[in-house]
Each structure stands twice: as C-alpha cells, then as structure tokens.
Design a protein that fits this description.
This is UPF0340 protein Hs20B_05140. It comes from Pseudolactococcus insecticola. A hairpin with a 2-residue loop joins strand 8 and strand 9. Strands 1, 2, 3, 4, 5, 6, 7, 8 and 9 form a 9-stranded mixed sheet that branches. With 190 residues, the chain is an alpha+beta fold. It has 6 helices and 9 strands. The chain has one domain: Rossmann fold (3-Layer(aba) Sandwich).
Length: 190
C-alpha cells in the first residue's frame, strides 16, 4: 500500500467533504475508518496502524484548521464509542467511558487519534453535524437528524468505499410553513 498516495487522496477527500458539508468552527465531525478496507481486505480482519496514522492525521489537520472537533468512531468491540478531546467531552457534558483503544479493539483510526489528541477520552454517544465514512463503518448513528448524504470527490480510498453525511435542521410545519433558507436545503438534497 502506497501510504504517500493514501495521504494525498485523504487530504483531497477531506478538503472536498469540508467544503460540501459547510463545516464550521465549533461543530463536530465524526470519522469512521476501516483500515482493513483501505488495505483491500474485509472490515475488521486486516487492520493497519500505518494506514490509520496517515488517514487520521490528514483529517485531523483539516478539521482542526476549520476550528471544528474530530470524533473518531471505534469498532464494534467498543460498541462504536467515539474518541474525542476531553475539552469537547466536558463542554458538551458527554458520558466518558473507560477504555484505551487498541488496534483490534477500537481500530487503527482510534489508535492513531489517541496518539494525536492532546487529552483523548472515549465517549459513549455524540451528535455530530457531519461525518465521513471510509470503509462502510456506519457512522449515521452519530450524525444529527436530518441527515443528507453527500457525494465526495473520491468514492474509494484504497479499497474502501467512501461516503459522507451532513445534517440540516428539520423542516416542520407542513405546506403552510415557510423556511428561511429552504433553497439551501433543497440544493443540499440533490
């Protein structure tokens, strides 16, 4: 696996996703990553710490440059808990759980984030405004309703299928209601 190519493609991918989601300062962005899938294998069976480091570093740098917060989803062995910075967990009063991610219990993305973050903690639940799923890890449970799928510029990273989500406020009130920026929501749904 060409790690330099993965880094370049990840940087290009996250730049596009940030633009398409309109991610803003203070918002939360969730990342689901299967390095096994990026590596051409099956999710959970061929984890690569090196791929995790390259991908997470590129995404972390882009997300923090915007002033947003990165939450990295763990694998099923950690019940899809999320690794975040303690200051975010404290500010949002998120429930912290006790576990340190490992390559095969948390995954390469969480292991990489654990090394990168200044004060990492695991939390049980989060509501993010947007997210990126590399390898079909099912991040939807962590993205605020109403979720809108976006089509990233890159549809595969290595061997992994790539999808992304953003959210918008619910349109309520029925046919008599008007919405301040309904055209923005309609455009996003195309």
């Amino acid at each position: 696996m060409d790690l330099s190519a993965i880094q370049t493609e990840t940087a290009r991918l996250i730049s596009d996703v940030i633009t398409q989601t309109g991610l803003k300062k203070g918002q939360i962005f969730v990342l689901g990553l299967s390095s096994s899938e990026v590596n051409g294998g099956v999710i959970g069976h061929n984890s690569s710490a090196e791929i995790g480091q390259v991908v997470v570093k590129a995404i972390y740098e882009a997300i923090t440059a915007v002033g947003a917060h990165l939450a990295v989803q763990g694998c099923e062995h950690l019940n899809r808990a999320l690794l975040v910075e303690r200051d975010l967990a404290d500010a949002k009063d998120l429930e912290i759980v006790s576990v340190i991610p490992q390559l095969h219990a948390g995954g390469s993305g969480q292991v990489a984030a654990y090394a990168l973050f200044s004060d990492p903690v695991e939390v049980e639940h989060i509501t993010a405004q947007a997210g990126l799923d590399i390898g079909d890890t099912s991040i939807g449970m962590h993205v605020k309703h109403v979720q809108i799928p976006i089509r990233p510029i890159i549809r595969e990273l290595g061997g992994a299928h790539v999808t992304a989500l953003k959210s918008r406020p619910k349109l309520i009130g029925g046919p008599r209601a008007t919405y301040e920026s309904v055209d923005t929501f309609r455009e996003a749904g195309k």
